[in-house]
Amino acid sequence: MSKQNYYVVSRPQGGWAVKKEGSQRASAVTGTQKESIEIGKDLAKKSQGELTVQGRDHKFREKNSYGNDPRNIKG
Prior knowledge:
Blueprint: E1 6-10, E2 16-20, E3 26-30, H1 33-47, E4 50-54, E5 60-65
Parallel strand pairs: 1-4
Antiparallel strand pairs: 1-2, 2-3, 4-5
């Protein structure tokens, strides 16, 4: 499986969606942000991609990588 990036975004109709980068359709739709984050984490981990989370104010508030990160942060 190739690296895929996912986004947790609010829906105009209410609720939250997990969307794969470049896709028009949601991979999952849930009633809460927490549920969408858990689903998004699982999908991003399986593809060794990233998960970006949108806040209630529609600004992206969090980004996590689950693959091989080229940055050396061990210090």
